[in-house]
Predict the structure.
Amino acid sequence: MNFTNFGKYLLLLKAVFRKPEKIKIYMKAIFQQMDFIGVGSLGLIAIISTFIGAVMTLQIAFQLVSDFIPKTIIGSVNRDSSILELSPTITAIVLAGKIGSAISSEIGTMRVSEQIDALEIMGINSPGYLILPKLIAGITMVPVLVICSMFLSITGGFLGGTLSGAVSPAEYIQGITTDFNPYTITVALVKAFVFGFIITTVPAYEGFYVKGGALEVAQASTRAVVIACISILACDYIITQLLL
Amino acid sequence: MIEIKDIEKAFGSNIVLKGISAKFEEGVTNLIIGGSGSGKTTLLKCMVGLQIPEKGSVLYDGREFLEMNFDERIEVRKEIGMLFQGSALFDSMTVEDNIMFPLNMFTDQSHEEKLDRANFCLKRVNLEGKNKLFPTELSGGMKKRVGIARAIAMNPKYLFCDEPNSGLDPKTSIVIDELIKEITEEYKTTTIVVTHDMNSVMGIGDYILFLHEGKKFWEGSNKEIAHTDIEELNDFVFASRFMKAARKNF
């Protein structure tokens, strides 16, 4: 059964990448989706990232009880944790809930109210028209949000650490600037790209093939978020294993 | 003209359509009638490619639709207009945008030209000035009329209507029926209407195909339907006391 669904998912993706009917209309839809996914999620991601950074700093400081370990390590650990794991994964999981459920319910409602059939009858490639703009917006805006999240998480760590007195500003700044490996950014952006793909296509698939009414649309939406979150965590492990 | 030959469709072990053949001429309103679950809507969906039949063929002016590749089907579909049972208007768009949507996707007309066409279609369905309303602000009858306006926006050769009267009061139903008939005769479209509304059958049924339990049971015109002795058809058409009484006058 799962292989059947995976096969249908791949066939849907194949249909998504058919030649668009009119580039101008697709471009307009892409910018609308970028606004929805990127700008619309920025506030939520900013709040979550800042607090996670602050909490991370306090927890690292709490665990570093040895006098032999310099406090600059707090900044280093927070930086690498934020860049490599927390920013891409937490951002993706939050977006899977916020964006994924919206995509699934939007497309699912269009399916049950025959709007997708109407598109098909007009001669429009409905997977392309409905999913491609969301997909392109996802794979471009999720990396942008992850970059913002990295910056805010490290800033949040600075604020949390210095305001609580767990680490001095100088030690924290020294920590985040010491032994920085730019490759970690590359790994994070690869993750963000893959997560952006999952966040948009998995819910779109669930919505596109929904059958029934309001209850089924809601169930598809819930299923979409769950599958997207599990896929994100599985891909997170695979990418980390492959790239580090 | 649309011709269907030996259409068979099953959902699992449930055979819904059992070898249906018919010819639907242009310029006349062709009705597919039958009770609930008789396969009317499934037949319509098979004809437009929303369902794939197990067997049979659908010919649009001699072109075999079911054997076409994706691009060829798209070309045929540009010639199709369809009114859905629930209207299927895009609820995030205004009335005007709904009608202009196919024009935006498939024509290189200027905005003014598309707007003129949208206004013409709205006038044709007696909804002038409703351009900026959203579907949620429309009544059921208005939604159907916007659906018709969107369906005729691209000057279709083939017009399909899936239960255009469902959920409408009798007066509005007659307005919709007359509109469909006028458009069919005016633009010489091949129009196929799925219905179980007896007013429609008697009012606009130039050609009627009666389905019963997935089989073609009868075909003819609204003038002939009152004079048949097919039990299943009579049970369906003259189910109400009113129709039974009215039959004497046909």
User: Anything to note?
Assistant: The beta strands of chain B are 2-11, 14-24, 29-34, 55-60, 63-64, 80-83, 158-162, 190-195, 207-212, 215-220. The first helix of chain B runs from residue 40 to 48. The domain at 2-79+159-248 of chain B is CATH 3.40.50.300 (Rossmann fold).
